[in-house]
Design brief:
By secondary structure, the chain is mainly beta. It is built from five helices and 34 strands. The strands form seven sheets. Strands 9, 10, 12, 14, 15, 16 and 18 form a seven-stranded mixed sheet that branches. A hairpin with a 6-residue loop joins strand 1 and strand 2. The longest helix is centred in the N-terminal third of the chain and has 26 residues. The chain is globular. It binds 2-acetamido-2-deoxy-beta-D-glucopyranose (NAG) (3 copies). Keywords: Glycoprotein, Signal.
């Protein structure tokens, strides 16, 4: 009887196990980890960050949108209701969507949510920790709101390499335009012109001294800083206070002190700041980098016992000088003994000893095509297909894209329009060089993956440049800058199957073609490597009216 009971409970356990595994596979989310549910209503609403009325994009009435606070491996179930008069889609900057590019929320993977409709994202912050953000990926919506921060805390049993701070502040900063609506920005680009320079900078959706961080004397605070803007590299500094860098997009860094730190579009990092100065108010300053016309804005660091308001000149910072920015970038390295989302130290994967199987050199360019401003990568200026690439794959719809429609190396000639998709081998280990021959600043982001930034320098990359690579403790992140007339090299382990967007974080360039997709694929495509299409997937373009589950 007892044996029978045991047998029964074992059977029951296996059954529950199977059900859990099935639920996991069917929903593309992990049943073992906590679930967090969000309901977000996307609307237009009046905002006045620079004193003039603008049509902002709000989430549940908020600008910036609500924060997501979660723990490594949590499941995030986010129901998005689109009340705009046009399609909407959210993407998750730095949240990797492991095996699950379906949820990535860019046009190559996911159908836009039509006006008046809803879609429920099922994400998991799988094996991640750190500071990220979400943003609307269509058109120029990102320039008018719809973004918010994502904090992924470590699980209790996994130590982070610094004491728990007394407070944890979010700093979403970026360039800003005073126009009435994001549609005006889009109209300029659609008519073949370039965007004007931005009008100013914001911190957490506010202008000059519009936002206050209140600190208690003697306490230490974490500031999670993200550049959510569309074009401008920024420099961040706090009057009279040193910033100790502790995290960059999920990597725990060597804890250097900085008096100011550059943050390029799409990048995030965390610093610790101790309120150890005389009790008064201090400027928290953000100013533009590499722009002819320097923009700046301030927030207030307010000591709780202060009666003295900020006054006097705003402390200056680096502006056009590139060398100091490059020097700082090279000083940002991983702490090899610190743990990351998992207990093993960050240095336990010796990326420098792995030989890349393939080298890809990606060169950006600005060109006119049919009289309109366009941007290209290795001569291909990306155009959005009518059907997401992921759906074209799933339903075997031909003619949406061609694999190999972008070359591994730059070639000479004029740019042309195409839906560029590059093939990549699942579990491949690649070297990618971003070569920038233009005299402009570039930032590149890869969805679904982080990568080791092994080197950056001025001029033309050559195989000899490898001698200067950092093969020991390079930072591991998802967005990297490329200086004017310079190159940046990364190593990337392609252990996440799916269709991944590689794009410029300069939103005009992204919108006008400086992006493509990398299809990380293996012929033995199994559910262990990639989740099946979600039950609730929206269908659009040539996939409209199809059925996701033929059973
Ligand atoms: C690296 O991390 C370890 C382990 O948490 C910590 O003790 C050490 O101080 C860190 N080193 C630096 C240079 O940040
Ligand atoms: C900040 O911007 C204002 C207005 O554009 C300008 O007068 C001031 O000099 C700038 N300050 C710094 C430190 O760049
Ligand atoms: C939360 C959610 O996804 N709600 C609804 C979204 O819209 C579909 C119909 O298109 C409903 O079936 C869902 O329940």
């Amino acid at each position: 009887m007892r044996l029978m009971g045991e047998y029964r409970s074992t059977l029951l356990c296996s059954l529950i196990g199977i059900v859990v595994v099935l639920a996991f596979v069917l929903n593309g989310a992990n049943g073992d980890n906590p679930y967090r549910y969000y309901t977000w209503k996307i609307t237009y609403g009046d905002i006045y960050p620079m004193g003039v009325k603008q049509q902002g994009i709000l989430i549940n009435g908020q600008f910036p949108g609500p924060h997501i606070d979660c723990v490594t491996n949590d499941n995030l179930i986010i129901s998005v209701y689109n009340y705009l008069d046009e399609p909407f889609l959210l993407s998750w900057n730095g949240i990797q969507q492991r095996k699950n590019s379906w949820q990535d929320g860019v046009q190559g993977t996911t159908c836009p949510i039509p006006p008046g409709k809803n879609f429920t994202y099922m994400l998991q912050a799988k094996d991640q920790i750190g500071s990220y953000f979400y943003f609307p990926s269509l058109g120029m919506q990102k320039a008018f709101g719809g973004f918010g921060s994502i904090k992924v805390y470590s699980r209790p049993q996994i130590p982070v390499p610094f004491p728990r701070p007394d407070g944890d502040f979010i700093v979403l900063t970026g360039d800003w335009f005073k126009m009435q609506s994001h549609k005006q920005l889009r109209y300029i680009l659609d008519s073949g012109r370039s965007l004007p320079a931005p009008d100013g900078l914001l911190i957490n959706g506010r202008g000059w001294n519009g936002y206050t961080f209140t600190v208690v004397p003697g306490r230490t605070y974490r500031f999670r800083i993200s550049n959510v803007g569309i074009a401008t590299s920024l420099n961040v500094r706090i009057q009279g206070h040193a910033m100790k860098l502790v995290e960059v997009e999920g990597s725990h860094t060597i804890q250097n002190f900085y008096s100011s730190i550059d943050v390029h579009p799409g990048q995030s990092f965390s610093v610790l700041v101790t309120a150890n100065q005389a009790p008064k108010d201090y400027y928290f300053v953000v100013s533009s980098r590499f722009n002819n016309h320097v923009l700046n804005t301030t927030a207030v660091l307010h000591y709780s016992n202060s009666w003295t308001k900020v006054s006097g000149p705003v402390p200056g910072g680096p502006t056009s000088d590139i060398v100091s920015s490059l020097y700082q970038a090279r000083s940002i390295r991983r702490n090899l003994t610190a743990s990351a989302p998992r207990p093993n130290p960050q240095g336990s994967y010796h990326y420098g000893l792995v030989k890349p199987q393939r080298t890809i050199v990606l060169a950006n360019s600005a060109q006119y095509i049919n009289g309109k401003q366009r941007y290209a990568v290795n001569r291909v200026s990306y155009i959005q297909p009518d059907t997401p690439l992921k759906l074209a794959d799933y339903f075997k719809i031909g003619g949406v894209y061609n694999l190999g429609s972008i070359s591994d190396y730059p070639t000479s000639g004029n740019a042309y329009l195409s839906t560029a998709v590059m093939h990549a081998d699942y579990r491949g280990f690649y070297e990618i060089v971003f070569q920038n021959w233009e005299n402009t600043f570039q930032t590149w982001h890869i969805d679904g993956n982080s990568f080791f930034v092994v080197g950056m320098d001025g001029g033309q990359w050559t195989p000899g440049s490898r001698l200067k690579y950092n093969l020991r403790d390079a930072v591991y992140r998802c967005t990297t800058q490329v200086y004017p007339k310079s190159w940046t090299a990364i190593y990337i382990a392609l252990d996440n199957m799916g269709m991944w967007n590689i794009r410029s974080e300069t939103w005009e360039r992204q919108y006008l073609g400086q992006q493509f997709y990398m299809r990380v694929y293996a012929p033995s495509n199994s559910m262990r490597d990639e989740y099946p299409i979600p039950k609730n997937a929206l269908l659009c373009g040539r996939a409209s009216g199809r059925h996701t589950r033929p059973l």
